[in-house]
Specification:
Layout: H1 3-8, H2 12-15, E1 16-17, E2 20-21, H3 23-36, H4 53-66, E3 71-75, H5 83-98, E4 104-109, E5 112-116, H6 117-120, E6 126-130
Length: 132
């Protein structure tokens, strides 16, 4: 599936009038998140499977940010990606919090709260970010 479809699939109803998708609005939405999350791709029509692991993770995050979810749970958001991409993902989580897109993020490991992601970056399996 393409980056475009991955990001907009949960919000197609909002981008459509009756049965027609407003492609201008769809492109605007995808470009917004592609730029905000610094997704490296030659085109929004690129297949997500052809992206690096870090960029695939960013597309997944963009999908739920676009849907304006009230709760965003990131389960092992950096698993299986290189060190540079891990740092970018943690910076993204911190940017979301700084912009107040996300007002709280905790590191949860083995069912226990281990504090703020900034204090524990790279050490946890589960990060949750609640949106209000």
């Amino acid at each position: 599936m393409s980056i475009r479809w991955n990001i907009t699939l949960p919000i197609l109803r909002e981008l459509s009038k009756m049965t027609f998708i407003n492609f201008k609005e769809e492109n605007k939405c995808v470009d917004k998140y592609k730029d905000a999350l610094r997704i490296k791709t030659p085109s929004i029509n690129q297949l997500v499977g052809n992206l690096s692991g870090g960029n695939q993770q960013k597309v997944a995050v963009a999908k739920w940010l676009a849907s304006e979810s009230k709760i965003l749970i990131l389960d092992e958001p950096t698993r299986g990606i290189d060190v540079g991409a891990k740092q970018e993902i943690y910076e993204l989580i911190n940017r979301l919090t700084d912009r107040r897109t996300c007002n709280h993020h905790d590191l949860i490991r083995d069912g226990r709260d281990h504090g703020n992601v900034r204090q524990n970056a790279g050490h946890g399996r589960r990060t949750n970010c609640r949106r209000t």
